[in-house]
Specification:
Distance between the termini: 22 Å
CATH class of the largest domain: Alpha Beta
Number of domains: 2
Helix content: 25-40%
CATH topology of the largest domain: D-amino Acid Aminotransferase, Chain A, domain 1
Structural class: alpha+beta
Bound molecules: cytidine-5'-monophosphate
Strand content: 25-35%
Largest sheet: 7 strands, antiparallel
């Protein structure tokens, strides 16, 4: 049974579970935000799409042997996860230059990177999620270098699996953001969500943008695009 509301973020609510100390319920909301909450809109059906897309992606990764917090979906907008202490880092992996990387480094959007780049940002709305080097990450996220190395290696492994998965549904994985959490036993697992809110996905043939950039830059209808992604994932992954 759903317990009390523990936390409400921009896109999700987190509830406790009565009688289950180590499990939580994530409820996905119909909200889309961009530019650290400065742009905001409600899209009917978005919560369902993010919940189900993320459930498919986590199921795929679980089968590939990646430790994750995901247990199962409970309804169209809810999923059951293992409770973890979120490490306050946004771990971004990039295969192709886009977004903040083009602005910061002057690379042209679409430049294929010779090898994937892993970046850390500090999860802080107040500070606008600043870019961190390893020393900053150790200082602010209270992780040691061996944890950071494990997180980087895991992010790169996840990237390899996701590139294969998205290419099976005719999408190029440009970049994405991951979050990791610590379970009660101290082990680090993949947490949060993976969806078109947290990835850049371009059509393999046309480079059409199939992710939250359609909302950020007012390109196309977000719900229609996310529906296409869910349908394609349902054809290749069983939850
Ligand atoms: O904005 P930037 O280019 O740094 O984003 C890199 C990737 O991380 C994009 O796929 C974006 O959707 C994702 N991201 C995210 N949440 C953030 C910042 C970035 O999911 N707070």
């Amino acid at each position: 049974m759903k317990g009390s509301l523990l936390y409400e973020g921009k896109a999700k609510k987190v509830y406790s579970l009565v009688g289950e100390e180590y499990e939580l319920i994530l409820e996905y909301k119909d909200e889309a935000t961009a530019f650290n909450g400065k742009k905001h809109q409600t899209f009917r059906g978005k919560g369902r799409l993010n919940n189900l897309i993320s459930a498919h992606v986590f199921s795929y990764l679980k089968l590939a042997g990646i430790p994750t917090h995901f247990i199962q979906t409970l309804s169209d907008t809810e999923q059951l996860v293992k409770q973890s202490q979120i490490i306050p880092l946004e771990v971004v992996v990039r295969n192709v230059a886009a977004g903040s990387m083009t602005r910061r480094l002057g690379l042209e959007e679409g430049t294929v990177l010779p090898q994937p780049v892993v970046e850390f940002y500090y999860k802080s709305d107040e500070l606008d999620d600043p870019f961190l080097n390893d020393e900053h990450a150790r200082l602010l996220a209270k992780v040691d270098q061996s944890d950071l190395e494990k997180i980087k290696a895991s992010a790169l492994k996840i990237n390899r699996h996701l590139q294969v998965m998205f290419s099976e549904i005719e999408l190029r994985l440009i970049d994405f953001k991951l979050e990791f959490g610590r379970l009660y036993d101290g082990s680090i697992v993949l947490s949060d969500e993976i969806s078109p809110d947290t990835c850049r996905l371009w059509d393999q043939d046309t480079n059409r943008k199939m992710d939250k950039d359609v909302f950020r830059n007012d390109i196309e209808d977000l719900v229609e695009i996310y529906e296409i992604i869910l349908k394609r994932l349902e054809a290749i992954v069983h939850v």
